[in-house]
């Protein structure tokens, strides 16, 4: 009699398939996040300090902040949506990629 569907006559093979599927799902879920962390990638957009630097300022005002790397970033406050954000005068060369000189 043919019942259709998948035949799982060997419990050992079934266990191996289930284990491999579990491993695949685990790596698929966490792989991208782990790779991004290991490669030094960050979120896109200005850092929080760029917004803080322009608090109590007007559009077009100059401002500055100290980056997490210890550099002083100077620039002009510009409107982004409904908030002011500091646009650097000299954006870092490494924006969007890792800096290999460090």
Task: Write a concise synopsis of the structure shown.
With 102 residues, the protein is α+β, with helices and mostly antiparallel strands. The chain has helices spanning 11-38, 48-52; strands spanning 62-66, 72-80, 83-88.
Explain what you see.
The chain is of the alpha+beta class. It folds into two domains: 11-41; 48-88, no CATH class. 32% of the residues lie in helices and 20% in strands. The protein has two helices and three strands. It has helices spanning 11-38, 48-52, and strands at 62-66, 72-80, 83-88. The chain has a three-stranded antiparallel beta sheet with strand order 1-2-3. β2 and β3 form a beta hairpin. The longest helix has 28 residues, at 11-38. The relative contact order is 0.11. Mean pLDDT is 75; it is low at 96-102.
Per DSSP E runs of 2 or more residues, the count of β-strands stands at 3
Q: Provide the succession of SSEs.
A: HHEEE
Mean pLDDT figure: 75
Structural class: alpha+beta
Low-confidence stretches: 96-102
Main sheet overview: 3 strands, antiparallel
Distance between the termini: 70 Å
In angstroms, what is the radius of gyration? 25 Å
Q: What is the 3D form?
A: rod-shaped
Number of spatially distinct domains? 2
Give the amount of beta strand, in percent: 15-25%
Number of helices: 2
What strand order characterises the main sheet?
1-2-3
Helix content: 25-40%
């Amino acid at each position: 009699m043919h019942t259709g569907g998948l035949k799982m006559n060997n419990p050992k093979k079934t266990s191996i398939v289930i284990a491999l599927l579990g491993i695949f799902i685990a790596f698929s879920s966490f792989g991208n996040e782990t790779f991004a962390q290991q490669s030094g990638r960050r979120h896109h957009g200005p850092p929080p300090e760029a917004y803080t630097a322009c608090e109590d300022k007007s559009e077009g005002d100059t401002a500055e902040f100290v980056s997490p790397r210890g550099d002083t970033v100077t620039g002009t406050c510009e409107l982004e949506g409904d908030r002011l954000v500091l646009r650097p005068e000299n954006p870092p060369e490494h924006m969007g990629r890792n800096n290999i000189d460090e």
